[in-house]
Design brief:
The protein has one domain: Translation Initiation Factor IF3 (2-Layer Sandwich), CATH 3.30.110. The chain contains three helices and four strands, in the order αβαβαββ. The longest helix has 14 residues. Keywords: RNA-binding.
Length: about 100
């Protein structure tokens, strides 16, 4: 689990990022979870945008993604979900203690 300090750090790191995934009408599916897992391994931190036409609530979408990928939910701001998962091969972000 992330501490408050670590979440604040990750929020500041994610601030300038653009969402690289969009969740739309189809909601979250297994294919998307696989792609998100690969992207988390490569990048560790990114944003997912929940589109207007998504039939699920953004909190539900975030929960499904977190459960599917094992990522940490950093923040939900507006319709954007910020996710973090420490990379096994590609560690780039050093979290404060």
């Amino acid at each position: 689990m992330l501490t408050g300090k670590q979440k604040r750090f990750l929020r500041s790191e994610a601030h300038h990022l653009n969402p690289i995934f969009q969740v739309g009408k189809g909601g979250v599916n297994e294919n998307m979870i696989n792609q998100l897992s690969d992207a988390l391994e490569a990048r560790e931190l990114f944003k997912v945008s929940v589109l207007q036409n998504c039939e699920e609530d953004k909190n539900t979408v975030a929960k499904e993604i977190v459960e599917g990928t094992g990522a940490e939910l950093v923040q939900i701001i507006g319709n954007t979900i910020v996710l973090y998962k420490e990379s096994k091969e590609n560690k780039q972000i050093r979290l404060p203690n």
